[in-house]
Design goal:
This protein is of the alpha+beta class. The protein contains 2 helices and 11 strands, in the order ββααβββββββββ. Strands 7-6-4-10 form a 4-stranded antiparallel sheet, with no helix packed on it. A 3-stranded antiparallel sheet has the order 3-11-9, with no helix packed on it. The protein has a two-stranded antiparallel ribbon with strand order 1-2. The longest helix has 12 residues, at about 35-45. This is Biotin/lipoyl-containing protein. Keywords: Biotin.
């Protein structure tokens, strides 16, 4: 068993990781959660997405914003499409890198952007 300390959003958690051999029985045993672990999972899943630490989402290339799918104040999940950037007749979906809340919108439909230009702050 190895012990680690992990910090997520400023909170430190103590985590123990058990090495599991290749046998099926050991793998099944390692998948069983205690009631305390299940309670922690349910509590974590029911909480809203935390405010992020200020991530800037920038344009990967020059182009035109052809669709904006979120607004300032909206809560987004990692991988959720924020906007669509058309560049060289190709549509590129710009997605949220992590869960959070949109704190600032610098774009709207039809906006011309340059590579590296700020689109959204989470």
């Amino acid at each position: 068993m190895k012990n680690y300390k992990i910090t997520v959003d400023g909170k430190t958690y103590a985590v123990s990781v058990e090495e599991v051999n290749e046998s099926v029985g050991a793998a099944k045993d390692s998948l069983k959660n205690t009631s305390k672990e299940q309670e922690m999972l349910q509590t974590t899943q029911s909480q809203p997405a935390p405010a992020s630490s200020g991530i800037d989402i920038t344009a990967p290339m020059p182009g035109t914003i052809i669709d904006v799918r979120v607004q300032a104040g909206a809560t987004v999940k990692a991988g959720q499409v924020i906007c669509v950037l058309e560049a060289m007749k190709m549509e590129n979906e710009i997605v949220a890198p992590e869960d959070g809340t949109i704190s600032e919108m610098k774009i709207s439909k039809g906006t011309q952007v340059e590579a590296g230009e700020l689109l959204v702050k989470i």
